[in-house]
Amino acid sequence: MMRSSPATPAEGIAAGITEPECLVDIERVRANVTRMAHKAARSDVAFRPHFKTHQSAAIGGIFREHRPAGIAVSSPGMARYFADAGFEDITIALPLNPRLIRELDELAGRVTLGLLLDGPAAADALTSLANPVRVWVEVDTGQGRTGMAWDDVPGIVALAGRVRAATGRPVAGLLTHAGHSYAAGSAQRVRGIHAEVVGRMNLLAEEVRTAEGARPLISVGDTPCCCLVDDLSGVDEVRPGNFVFFDVTQLSIGSCAPGDIALAVACPVIGVYPGRGEIALHGGAVHLSKDSLEWHGERIFGLLGEPGGDVLGEPDPRSRVIALSQEHAVARVPDAGRWFVGDVTLVFPAHSCLTAEQYGSYLAVTGERIPRYRR
Amino acid sequence: MMRSSPATPAEGIAAGITEPECLVDIERVRANVTRMAHKAARSDVAFRPHFKTHQSAAIGGIFREHRPAGIAVSSPGMARYFADAGFEDITIALPLNPRLIRELDELAGRVTLGLLLDGPAAADALTSLANPVRVWVEVDTGQGRTGMAWDDVPGIVALAGRVRAATGRPVAGLLTHAGHSYAAGSAQRVRGIHAEVVGRMNLLAEEVRTAEGARPLISVGDTPCCCLVDDLSGVDEVRPGNFVFFDVTQLSIGSCAPGDIALAVACPVIGVYPGRGEIALHGGAVHLSKDSLEWHGERIFGLLGEPGGDVLGEPDPRSRVIALSQEHAVARVPDAGRWFVGDVTLVFPAHSCLTAEQYGSYLAVTGERIPRYRR
User: Fold this and answer.
1) Which ipTM was obtained for this model?
2) What is the pTM of this model?
């Protein structure tokens, strides 16, 4: 916490802050990426990081040092952005939207494009593609979001055949996102989910191999499983995304240590209420996103941390953002009377992917501006 | 619901939709604005609409027809945008952030600028302003966000004196946002909160008049109170914002009818799961915001509606968005088997202010592109 007047040298990161800024600690990003790339290599699985978290060509460059097999993104616009930045193998990890078939065909002419099928309905659209694509069948292994239900074995096998008929090429693989790992509640249960998912996917891959002659690849990827499981073998590729920054949700799951979190929002203090034990920040849902998590029995939007030097420091588990409106946050802090209007604090958000999405660029803690893709 | 292939004439609004788009029904906006402007005029209170909801000069033009006393915004950037669009009286309805004093002084040279003080700490910063400003003391009348506690009468009176000392002009007024009206639970209780707030603010205005000689103005404004109270007299100005679009939260409070909601997000259907009674949409937290509300005992992110013709239609209370990730939504629908991948549905969001913030422009249901301010 700082008591100095604005812009004194002691403020470090905070010195230039006048309004909420999305700060990124590139050294932490580098360490997070290296750790995951090494684990994938050790496990002998392809590394296809999901770039929806950072959406930045500059941060993508850090991954490139580890020669990823390719990348995943979540929209054709994001795919175009990274194709322009030189990425040549891109999976759009969202079920095929037939309304985008022209945009997708154009992309398929520029890069090795992977598409997801969620069921037979969209398979027909594949016949209108002039350029070759790699088609993955999305499998729902328990999250209940998108994908063919994992126990619909005949449906998944039939869809693999339909992909071959529509494209003239065998299905590239089976892909799943075990997003239910976020609610697992313990590291042991996250590992249990991963084991179950790998088992289900291998069973399905074997069924498709029997029917189609060729064994489809298996792609999995969610940050909790990829962080908490030591050996990722048993699949062909992993697609984690959030680990590049981490956040308080991942901290609460146990995917990272406090000092691994590489993104925080610098927020000016605009109100101090010692009687309530609270402070108000300029920094609302439009700067942090409205995502939240359960933290020691309480619904919170993030934890505070102190700016200082040119590193992000660590979140203080006692200082919680407890309310969020459009541009205001209210935080409960251990000693509200020590804060001053005009101070700057950091908010480590609940969900870094959604926080980052609120900005057109990041500010590196070392002062550089880092552009990112914006819809 | 539609079963046609993409882009057939029957689709109306949906015809050109390939990815999530933020649709606005300008005729409904016009009706919502007219209703509120007439109520303010009838009540003989100044109308200072909060433009943080729409953040669009074009939509601001619709308000202009009713000659509002001025506008409210929530950041200096937004104030500059509307100053450029010709608005001459702007209150920044967020407690003064001393780090922005230079930007604020520049604005004060261009428009009649209103600033909020949240306590004595920021009052000193006023002395460095070269241009005159109107200073409001923010009062917390029960929300527990920002403002001086309403029962700290000596503190509020002292702050009024301090404003006069710092600026050489009496305090402009006392301002409050009764945001606790959102959780009131019934129209009657919303009216009760409004009556209590008006009572507290008049009591304080009288105390300030006694001490300072001049009676400060009273500014209130939240959409539930301004919609559910018939006669807004008893204050000097009202500052509602959300009513321009409304949303499912306002519908659940009773502030509007289903056919008043003027904003919805068009989302392509990317998955259909008759066995689960659910469909998946391309349209996630980055298109809707992660805000939610309690709807008949369930936490939801919005209601679905059918696109058709060039009006938004009404939300279907039986079709709920029950899960939201970065780019996906899952909706529970009455008859999932009637949907097809490639259909387009509308999502009426929980909170239109935060949804609108996710876009650089709106798409009018009549086809025009409407730009908006973007940080």
Assistant:
1) 0.95
2) 0.95
